[in-house]
Amino acid sequence: MPMLAVNGTHLFYDLAGPEGAPVVLFSNSLGTTAEMWDAQARALAGRCRILRYDTRGHGRSQTTGPVRLETLARDVIALLDALQISSAHVVGLSLGGLSAQALGI
Q1: Which of 27, 45, 91, 105 has the most CB within a 10 Å radius?
Q2: What is the pLDDT of residue 15?
Q3: 48 in helix, strand or coil?
Q4: In sequence order, what are the residues at sequence separation of 6 or more whose Cβ sits closer than 8 angstroms to the Cβ of residue 28?
């Protein structure tokens, strides 16, 4: 179970797909885990490098104290930095969509 210590917490992540392929990062919705994106990951397998993670406080990822939207965006940046990913297409739903928007800002 891959975990990374980032931004003051430990995040579970799953990175799969061909090296050098475009990275698609999936951010889960409130109360779900990275597995909510299983069908999309299967559909893009072989063409993209898929990065899924459990948002702070969800699934296998930890949380520490109150969390703001900016914290979730910093978590994504720290995860990408730790994995040495310089750019990614970001897809999110619900809380994951808010995280993606905060990341864009």
Answers
A1: 27
A2: 97
A3: strand
A4: 34, 36, 37, 52, 53, 54, 55, 58, 59, 92, 93, 95, 96
Distance, C-alpha 91 to centroid of its chain: 9
Kindly state the tokens that stand for 102.
């905060």
* DSSP-assigned letters across all residues of 70-95: HHHHHHHHHHHHHTT----EEEE-TH
Reported as a single tens digit per residue, the pLDDT across 21-62 is: 999 999 999 999 999 999 999 999 999 999 999 999 999 999
Q: What band does 1 get if pLDDT is binned at 50, 70 and 90?
A: low
The amino acid occupying position 82 is: A
Q: CA nearest 27: which of 86, 100, 84?
A: 100
Q: Are 33 and 20 in contact (CB under 8 A)?
A: no
- Beta-strand ranges (E) seen in 1-105 are 3-6, 9-16, 23-27, 49-53, 89-92
pTM across the whole model: 0.94
Tell me phi and psi for residue 69, to 5 degrees. -60, -40
